[in-house]
Specification:
5-stranded antiparallel sheet, disordered N terminus, Peptidoglycan synthesis regulatory factor (PBP3), Domain 2, single chain, alpha+beta
C-alpha cells in the first residue's frame, strides 16, 4: 500500500514535516509506527543501499525463531572465528550458549558471532541467508537481499530504509530480541570486561529501547532505532549517514516529531460495561460483559486519522462461567489500523442452573408450549369452521341461483307455448 501511493504519501509527509520544522540530514530515512506499520515520515524510503551491521537484527530474529533449542551450546568453527571486521572476541573451539552468542552479536556487533550462529542453525552461511531472505519477505521487506548474516560488504547484499524499518518492527515484536537489544551492558562468559552495547542511542535518548547500529566505509552509518513513550512505540531506519552525530540527531528529531503526532483518544478502566450476552444453562439468562484490563489508547490524531471502535461479542455462551473467560474484544481502530484490542469477560461468575430450576423451567416451557399448541389448534379449528360456513353459504347461493334460472326457463317455455297456440 505504501508503495502504491508512495508519491502522494511522501508529498503529504513533506508538507507536514516542514510545518513541524523536521529537518533530517541523512539521505534515506523512515519513521514507522511499530504497532500499525503506518509510515509517519519518509525520505528516499525505497532507495537501495547497503545495510552494514543492522543486518544482524534480521540474523538475530531468524536465529531466535528457528533454533530448535534457544539454550543450545554453539561450537565456534575456525571459519566463524576468522570472520573479519567487528568482533565478539570468540575463538575456534569455544562452546558458547546460543543466548550469549546473540548478546555478543547484538551488543558488540560481532561478525564472528553472526557467522557462528548461522553455521549452528543452517550448517552454512549460504543456507542461512536463504532463511534471512524468506523472513525479510515475511516482514514485508520486498526490496532487500541478504547473502551473509554479519552485514559485511557484498554487491549482492542490499536493502532500503523502509524494508529495514519493517524488519526492525518485526524484531521488536520478539520479546527476547527486544530484551537483548535494550540491554546496555552485560557479562559474557568468555570476556573478562562487561560487554557494552554499541547502540549509543540507548544512552543519548531517554525513550530509546533498541535495536542496533552499523557502519562500513561503503554503507556509511546505518541504524535501526526503537523508542517507546505513553504506550506508543516508534521505529526509525536510517541509511547512509555521514557520521554518528548526524545519525543520532536525525533519529532523535524523528522520534520527537513522531511522538508529537500522538494524543490520547481513550482511557479504558477494568470493569467497564460494554454489553450483554445470552447464557445457556445458567441461573441467569444474560450476563453483563465488561473490559478485562486497563488500556490507554493513543493515536496520531495530528495526521487527521479517524478513530472508530469495533465490538465483537460471542452471541451466546454456556454456563458455568468463572468470570475469567474471554467473551469478546473491544477494538480501537484508526483508519483501518488496530490501535488496541481489549479483551472482554463476564462481569461476574454465572453458576449452572440447579436441577430443580431446570425441571421448573422445563415444566414452565412445557406448559407454555402445550397452551400455545392448544391455542393454535383452536385457531385452526375456528378458521376451518369459518371456511366451511363460507363454503356452505356459497353452495346455498349457487343452489338458489340455479333454481331461479330453472323457473325462468320454465316461464319462457310456457310463454313460447302460449304464443304457438
Amino acid at each position: 500500500m505504501f508503495r502504491a501511493f508512495g508519491p502522494v504519501i511522501l508529498c503529504l509527509l513533506i508538507l507536514t514535516n516542514v510545518a513541524y520544522g523536521l529537518n533530517v540530514q541523512s539521505p534515506a530515512v523512515v519513521l514507522l509506527d511499530a504497532q500499525t506499520g503506518r509510515v509517519l515520515f519518509a525520505k528516499n524510503a525505497d532507495e537501495r543501499r547497503e545495510p552494514a551491521s543492522i543486518t544482524k537484527i534480521l540474523t538475530a530474529l531468524v536465529a531466535l525463531e528457528t533454533a530448535a533449542d534457544p539454550e543450545a551450546v554453539v561450537t565456534v568453527s575456525a571459519h566463524a572465528a576468522g570472520t573479519p571486521g567487528s568482533t565478539a572476541l570468540i575463538e575456534t573451539g569455544m562452546e558458547i550458549p546460543l543466548s550469549e552468542l546473540l548478546q555478543g552479536m547484538l551488543l558488540l556487533s560481532g561478525n564472528d558471532a553472526a557467522v557462528a550462529l548461522a553455521e549452528h542453525i543452517s550448517g552454512s552461511v549460504e543456507t542461512f541467508a536463504e532463511l534471512m531472505n524468506a523472513r525479510a519477505r515475511a516482514a514485508g521487506a520486498k526490496h532487500s537481499h541478504f547473502v551473509n548474516p554479519s552485514g559485511l560488504p557484498d554487491k549482492e547484499q542490499y536493502t532500503t530504509a523502509y524494508d529495514m524499518a519493517l524488519i526492525g518492527r518485526a524484531a521488536m515484536q520478539n520479546p527476547r530480541l527486544a530484551e537483548i537489544s535494550a540491554t546496555k551492558t552485560c557479562r559474557l562468559s568468555w570476556i573478562d570486561e562487561p560487554a557494552i552495547n554499541h547502540n549509543r542511542l540507548l544512552w543519548t535518548y531517554a525513550q530509546a529501547d533498541g535495536v542496533k547500529n552499523g557502519y562500513t566505509k561503503a554503507a556509511k552509518h546505518t541504524w535501526v532505532g526503537s523508542a517507546a513513550k505513553d504506550g506508543v512505540r516508534l521505529i526509525t531506519a536510517v541509511l547512509g549517514a555521514e557520521n554518528r552525530d548526524i545519525i543520532l540527531a536525525d533519529q532523535e528529531a524523528m522520534f520527537e516529531y513522531g511522538f508529537s503526532l500522538y494524543e490520547q483518544v481513550a482511557v479504558v478502566e477494568p470493569g467497564e460495561s460494554v454489553g450483554q450476552v445470552t447464557v445457556i444453562g445458567g441461573k441467569e439468562s444474560e450476563v453483563s460483559v465488561v473490559t478485562a484490563q486497563a488500556a490507554q489508547v493513543w493515536a496520531p490524531t495530528k495526521l487527521g486519522v479517524v478513530i472508530t471502535t469495533e465490538l465483537e461479542l460471542e452471541p451466546q455462551v454456556n454456563a458455568p462461567l468463572t468470570g475469567e473467560e474471554q467473551l469478546g474484544v473491544l477494538r480501537y481502530m484508526a483508519d483501518g489500523d488496530q490501535l488496541a484490542a481489549i479483551p472482554l469477560k463476564a462481569a461476574h461468575p454465572v453458576e449452572p442452573m440447579p436441577m430443580l430450576m431446570k425441571a421448573g423451567r422445563y415444566i414452565k416451557w412445557s406448559a407454555t408450549g402445550t397452551l400455545s399448541l392448544c391455542a393454535f389448534a383452536y385457531m385452526v379449528r375456528i378458521v376451518n369452521r369459518f371456511r366451511r360456513y363460507i363454503n356452505k353459504k356459497k353452495r346455498r347461493k349457487a343452489v338458489r341461483a340455479a333454481r331461479r334460472a330453472a323457473r325462468l326457463r320454465r316461464m319462457q317455455e310456457y310463454e313460447q307455448y302460449m304464443d304457438d297456440l
